[in-house]
Amino acid sequence: MEIFNEIKPIRAFLTAQKKLGRTIGLVPTMGALHDGHIELIRSSRQENDLTVCSIYVNPTQFNNATDLEKYPRTLAADSALLQEAGCDVVFAPANSEMYASPSQLHFDMGHLDKILEGEFRPGHFSGVALVVSKLFNIAAPTRAYFGQKDFQQYKVITRLVEELMFDIELRSVPIVRETSGLAMSSRNQRLTAEEREHATVFYRSLLLAKDLLKKGESIIPVREKVKQLCESVPAVRLEYFEWVDTVNLKPAENVSSQTILLIAGYVGEVRLIDNLILE
Ligand code: AMP
User: What are the tens digits of pLDDT across the range 14-37?
Assistant: First the structure.
């Protein structure tokens, strides 16, 4: 496995690989890797000759200084996991490499980045779009892999690729969960054993809501029941629970395979998200 920290050498390496006709899959991450990330690596390996994993905690997508400071950084363990998973290339740049000049560029995606995560984390998707654009230009992959866990992020990147005409195929990979149902997340590392138990309430809320909506209950009482369920668990604070159309992220009108339930909230000081597409 090749490890690069700088743009010039990874570009030269990948350009040479492409000249040999090899396809490249890119898996962008912020490190502190878990089985969810490894599933993206597996998906990329199935479809590409070479898999590149980027590990970079991108400051411009954080709107909370404590969250950025406390974000887990475990590069040595990550490298070992990637090696074991058969990843070919790691790109782990420093801030000075990714933001050699201070960032001036901002993205505005209208409705898409104002709702859900965008409402509670202003500027977050602009930072995501910026860093993903940089990574796409550095690696120029054939395909790029993202998790359904960050569903709205996938929509933002889809728009980015369309509007900026990146010649890259995007893939969305289903959410990998703990046996408890908790969606895997790097931020779970910050939870105590007790908090991890509490955090399962978000997935339980999604299952409850799915069940009630399928039985014909309307969204207002369902939202109330989700709120009550979350409030019944210590240290849990619900931020939002929404029901939207997967295509345009506008409020959903009925239960269909085009409907997604999304939830976000805090367990103690740690903010978590989860979602469920209604089949
Ligand atoms: P992150 O390191 O949190 O920025 O995540 C990097 C990529 O892994 C993103 O595309 C995430 O959506 C994806 N990801 C994170 N958690 C999971 C999970 N539990 N299952 C599947 N993909 C995930």
Answer: 999 999 999 999 999 999 999 999
